[in-house]
Amino acid sequence: MVVICNDFNYIFFVKILILIFSISLLAGCTSYQQTGITGGYEDVDLGGGRHKIDFQGNCYTTKERLENYNQKRAKELCPSGFKVLEEKFDKTICYPVLTTIIECK
Is residue 19 predicted with pLDDT exceeding 50? Predict the structure, then answer.
C-alpha cells in the first residue's frame, strides 16, 4: 500500500510510474543499430564482394523486421545492388537471429 502524504510525494510517485512505463516500452524495441543491449546488426567482410550480416532481435522482434533491417544493411554495404547467397533464421528461446550472406554486384 502506498501512502501519499503530500503533493511532493504524489508527483514523485507519478514520475516514477511514468519512468517505469517508458522503460518497459523501450525495452521491447530493436532499432537499426550495431549490436547493443536491444539487439542490432554485425557484419563481416568475407572478401570477394561478399558479406555476412547477422541481425539479432529481442523477444518482441518479428522475423519481418529482421528481414527489413538485413535488407537495409545490405543496401548500405552494396549500393550498386546485391544477390542473396544464403539466409538462415534462428530463434532460440527469445532472441531471433537472421543471418544473410550477400554478394555485391
Answer: yes
